């Protein structure tokens, strides 16, 4: 078997394990805190993601020179960091050239196994909250304070809005 094929299989296995771990983490938090409201559950998932994102960004940009602008950091996040997470780049990045960046993922891997029925709309945000925390932690590691909001337009499409806090 060629080296490229081995690397591709290794990447696919790693992605599958990440997806299963993510599903189990959400399921565990939901079942262990049944009386907890949706907001507290989302906050816990984002906090878990924050730590993961900060550590992953530390590794991802170990050999990368410092970013001059926030736009440079966001481009790195969309092109290279996202590949470490999901084996693909962000589909589209928009900015107002000030302090808001919008990241579009048309096939968000953590939502591909879920239905697009409106009856599950509350549950869909549980699966995106961890990634929102990862983004916040990753940007924090780069010295960028931010607030991340997300919108699930039609699963598996997801839009992340990054507002840079001054």
Describe this structure in words.
- Pfam families: TRAPP.
- One of its GO terms (cellular component) is cis-Golgi network.
- It is found in: Golgi apparatus, cis-Golgi network.
- Its main location: Golgi.
- This is Trafficking protein particle complex subunit.
- There is one protein chain.
- Helix 2 runs parallel beside helix 4.
- A four-stranded antiparallel β-sheet has the order 1-2-4-3, covered by helices on one side.
- With 166 residues, it is of the alpha+beta class.
- It contains four helices and four strands, in the order αααββαββ.
- It has helices at 3-32, 38-60, 70-86, 121-141; strands at 92-95, 100-105, 146-151, 158-164.
- The radius of gyration is 16 Å and the shape is globular.
- It is 55% helix and 14% strand.
- It has one domain: Muramoyl-pentapeptide Carboxypeptidase, domain 2, CATH 3.30.1380.20.
